[in-house]
Amino acid sequence: GTQMAVLLVRRSIASFCRSYPGVPRVHGRRGHATSVVIAGGGHNGLCAAAYLARKGLDVTVVERREMVGGAAVTEELYPGFKFSRASYLAGLLRPRIIKELELESHGLKYLVRDPSSFTPTLQNGPHEGKCLYLSSSERDTQASIAQFSPKDAERYPGYEKFLGECREIIRPLLDSPPPDIFQGSFRERLSAAQTMAQLARRAYLHRNCVPKFYELLTAPATHILDKWFESDILKTTLACDAVIGALLSPSDIGSGYVLLHHVMGEAAGQQGVWAYVEGGMGTISDALEKAALSAGVKIITGATVTAFEQKGNKITGVRLQDGSMVSGGSVISNLTPYQTVGLIKDSSILSSKPDILEYTSHLTSADYGCGAFKINLAVDSLPNFLCAPNHGDEPGPQHRGTIHFENSIHELEIAASKAQAGIPADRPVIEMTIPSSQDTTVAPPGQHVVQLFVQYAPYNVDPQVGSWKDETFKEQFIENVFAVIEEFAPGFRESILYIDALSPLDLETEFALHKGNIFHGALGLHQIGWARPMMGWANHRTPIEGLYLCGAGTHPGGGVTAAPGRNCAQAVSWDLGLGMVK
């Protein structure tokens, strides 16, 4: 019954695509120049380059920094310590890309974390120094939750099953652009129809979950979590996934989707988990670079793109800071949508067609709110938590996963409300990870790398409060972060050998992340899926001839998925009449 229904859907849509006379072809370029220039050597740009070069195209990647990878890089800023400076965990990189580009043979190796999460509590607090662990063992996880609520322990497996069903429903959308049977060649529209059929099939198989799935997409995270659980500490730990990289509180509409976004991936064959990458996050970019180079891609580093070259109303290449130009039949931007528009220096192209002006105006005024602050530390010893003391120098289960320092939803709400008013949280929300607890390649023996992903630090600070340009202001925020950790692990400050602190302004300056947004644009309901980066232009093309987007500002968003890169490569390949990438 289900298979027959899906088959009928496929056949009817395919027939429609063949016969409907009003369906336009977008940017059809069969027989056009076969050179491609990619502005920005982030992981998505490298991914797009590898796929297009494998189709026989002449591909050049131009990168501003001296290394490729964008925000997915490993840097040794202090002797012997290798920092994943911006992105710090892997779990959304698409398995299809890992397989097709043979990334494991190019050095990619996941280090799965177990337990995945540890939340300490204060000895003199309401939870009396108990610890919450979430691990791969259902029995151990339930036993840990039961300390706070036996009812929650009983319900937790059902919550995990619910999220698993949501992942299954949405999965077809992660490996292709949002399906649109009204754009592109017949083959492209047929592929879109097949994606729609897969979505229909999965929605039917999980039909009892579909109403709850819709609720998760549209409701605040607190609404979802309150329906499942009663203990504040469990809800708080889970709610942290709902606000990562977002200037939202868990009670804001849209935080439910952010929660889903951060549990919809997989690592090493395990669903919904996050892992370390041996050698740091730069290993992902290194593997993609090797895949690209082996396919014949040319990569230029230390070369800043200052403008797009134009011929009439067509983008024909990029101009570099030294005045030289790299030409291409197709130009792909791996930059943020905002910065992409900023490279259009000849304003005549903006007024050449109404949809171009509408498109560029939309991209410059999109929501880029984030509030992320990243601190990388070299330390001479592991943090020693009062509720889970160290036993010797070896890492324990409390050091392996993500460490949360928030014990109540109220803490998240207060911090978010301040940030939304332009005031950095005086009690910041912190996620600590210690990759050296499992990866011996990133720190000297007996010493460790500690990563702190911190919120809420708004890019636009109220001038009466301070400015990220003021080092004293920045240092005070860092001290507030350390003060929170000290409550749970006294002596942590004394263990610090080196600090690399990146404010939202630093993230913008160092990694070209507009307003410090780690996703190239907020993951709000108004700019995901078919509306990312803009309704009608979610297929990685733009209304400007010759120009495509492949960054995290396009579908399916950020989190080091490499999916925007592959999806964009597919769009270019279709427009050149080269068929499916693989």
Describe the overall structure:
- The structure is a single chain.
- The chain has helices at 2-19, 43-54, 95-100, 138-146, 150-170, 186-205, 210-218, 221-228, 232-239, 255-261, 282-294, 337-342, 354-364, 397-400, 409-420, 471-488, 504-511, 563-575; strands spanning 35-39, 58-62, 74-78, 81-84, 110-112, 117-119, 132-134, 266-267, 270-271, 275-277, 298-300, 305-311, 314-320, 325-327, 330-333, 373-379, 402-404, 429-433, 448-455, 496-502, 547-549.
- With 582 residues, the protein is an alpha/beta fold.
- The strands form 6 sheets. The protein has a 7-stranded mixed beta sheet, with helices on both faces. A 5-stranded parallel beta sheet has the order 11-2-1-15-21, covered by helices on one side. A 3-stranded antiparallel beta sheet has the order 12-13-14, with no helix packed on it.
- A hairpin with a 2-residue loop joins strand 3 and strand 4 (81-84).
- The two termini are 32 Å apart.
Low-confidence stretches: 4-33
What is the averaged pLDDT score? Answer: 93
> Please, how many helices?
18
Question: Which range best describes the helical content: under 10%, 10-25%, 25-40%, 40-55%, 55-70% or over 70%?
Answer: 25-40%
**How is the biggest beta sheet arranged?**
7 strands, mixed
Q: Specify Rg, calculated over alpha carbons.
A: 24 Å
Query: Class by helix and strand content?
Result: alpha/beta
State the strand order across the main sheet: 7-6-17-18-19-16-20
Strand proportion = 15-25%
First-last Cα distance? 32 Å
Shape, please? Answer: globular
Strand element count: 21
